[in-house]
Amino acid sequence: MKKQTYSCGLDAAVDVVGGKWKALILWALHSGALRFGELSRNVSGISEKMLIQQLREMESYGLVHREVYHQVPPKVEYSLTEFGHSLNTALIPLGDWGELHMETIEALPRP
Amino acid sequence: MKKQTYSCGLDAAVDVVGGKWKALILWALHSGALRFGELSRNVSGISEKMLIQQLREMESYGLVHREVYHQVPPKVEYSLTEFGHSLNTALIPLGDWGELHMETIEALPRP
DNA sequence: TCAGGTACTAACCTTTTTGTAAGTATGGAG
DNA sequence: CTCCATACTTACAAAAAGGTTAGTACCTGA
């Protein structure tokens, strides 16, 4: 989130879901709530710091819900809100596109 | 483009269209070819450096086509390839989502 | 000969993002 | 007592992205 005004819907959406991890976290939560540790293992390559950072941000955006179970050892579950679900749905075609062109993409020249 | 392998289609797609500008440039080219200067005015807020940098990258990915007219003053037109079109199409739902929730997004808390 | 319009290019710097590694808090189990 | 699992937190560093400013090359027409 950097801007306050956007030139178009895509501009706004990219600002919300932008970055390396948010879309993947959303994706991982697609099929239901997950604990912090489960997410950590599910989203391959993410560090604990980035995960919590992104989760906090997405929570503040109203995309994910955080449920704390007062136990020891602690248990915290993250799940998608309605808003998060709607965004996830909007991302499906993009995911399909990536899937379809995966080989092409992997063969693309790197900087 | 940072990775060589992806955990899912969305992962790959985000890697291709990631960053602040690519989606917007794609969007701007939706309705047809544009010259460098036209793009510059069309994609609000972008600097010439970022524009050319992103265009070059997208050209190398096969998303946009660059057509040079040997004239003075110079004229260069950028347009979407088939690949670029397909990506643009996949971005439509995301754009719609952003449009639909624009007010909510603008009211989101900033860091 | 000199300004003008177009599409870049280059150097330098600042900001943002991401990564790494270590440390904290909790209460029950042994 | 000490260890364990879990969910963070902190401090620091590196890397990537983005921004600013000035400059180049080209022919044309005044």
From TrEMBL, chains A, B:
Protein name stated in the entry: Helix-turn-helix domain-containing protein
Coiled-coil intervals, chain numbering: none
Domain named HTH hxlR-type: residues: 8-106
Organism of origin: Streptosporangium oxazolinicum
UniProtKB keywords: DNA-binding, Transcription, Transcription regulation
Lineage: Bacteria, Bacillati, Actinomycetota, Actinomycetes, Streptosporangiales
